[in-house]
Amino acid sequence: MRISTSQYFGMNVQTMDDQQSTLAQLYQQLSSGVSLATPSDNPVGAAQAVQLSMQGATLSQYASNQNTALAALQAEDGSLSSISSVLTSISTQLVRAGDGSLNNGDRGAIATQLQGLRNQLMGLANGTDGSGNYLYAGYQASTAPFAVNASGAVQYLGDNGVQNVQVTGTRNIAISDTGRQVFLSISPAGSAAVTAGNAANTGTGTIGNVAVSNPADPTNQHKYTINFTSSTTYTITDVTSATTTGPQPFTTGQAITLGGGGESVTIKGAPNAGDSFSVTPAAQSNTDVFANLDSVIAALQAPVAGTAGQANLTNALGTAMTQLQNTLNNVTTIQTSVGGREQEIEALQAVTQTNSLQTTSNLADLTQTDLTSVISKYTMTQFSLQAAQQGFSMIQKLSLFNYIGN
């Protein structure tokens, strides 16, 4: 096949143009550091780059959410630690108030201290995070969750909404607990039944804490009243099932079996006819920590007269101690849950950071210039172009007339 001179020249010029274009493209990659400037450079790579960019943006948002969630949980964790400290101080004062050598003035002073601790607890219940949002208000984050109403009682103004944050593609995590959960509820696990004496009792009977011998007994969840028909006999009424047993002989300090025998209680002293005591499952008892504090403060402020008055005060303190312990157990349970969520987020942060670094690396490999490779290609293309130009220049000079004169 014969190639005309014009074809030959055209082919060489086209080859050199292609090499010039390649050099320009390689130079652009070297100067900008970007190997994938437009989709036409690498359509498949461009699609992968878009996907990686979207994945990187999603991971960045999850990382931001994780930081927000962790900060919120750390704020609540610190608040719960302070709440536990106040509750422990209240418990100490209640134990001190049980000292039989104290007079009415001493107990009044303790009541004043308890009032201060109650106010301190109220302040923590209305605590805020670094952004000024109330920690325990639920969705009503801009409104103080607790307030004192016209009768002097503490009222919850928040709602039951628990704020959640999406920290991964498949995980939403709660970043708050409501005031109702913390201050007006108890944990089913670890809470004790509440014993109480009727404030109108005239005898010297005092009821102790419930002893549980069979935690699986379903009748442990029943409410009972122990009614003295005389100073030596009593009946037991299962309020839940509306049944009454007895009368039974009473011996001070002897265990009184309740329900199916899964729990028992002791009463010491000398109850009078008409005196009564109650045993209420923790979940059915008054779980409002502020109302319980108000009740025991009122009991300490009231003058104690005679042995019957001292017995009633002892019963009131015993009831308050059990209720407070149930509240403290609830706060500890919630704080444990908060700590677990903090650990989960910290673990997710590590995974998210690793995935983000890998995504960034993959995107860089796809779009950033590999200097070693591009410089090598640039040098080889430059040499090829120079060789083509020199060869074409020499061939241009060849002519039949150069041989005629010889």
From TrEMBL:
- In this chain the Flagellin N-terminal domain maps to 11-140
Pfam families linked to this entry: Flagellin_N (PF00669)
Q: Where in the cell is it found?
A: Bacterial flagellum; Secreted
- Per the record, the major location class is other
> What family is it from?
Belongs to the bacterial flagellin family.
This protein's name: Flagellar hook-associated protein FlgL
Q: Which UniProt keywords apply?
A: Bacterial flagellum, Cell projection, Cilium, Flagellum
Q: Does the keyword RNA-binding apply?
A: no
- The residue range of the signal peptide is none
Q: Which SUPFAM superfamilies has this protein been placed in?
A: Phase 1 flagellin
Cross-referenced InterPro entries: Flagell_FlgL, Flagellin, Flagellin_N
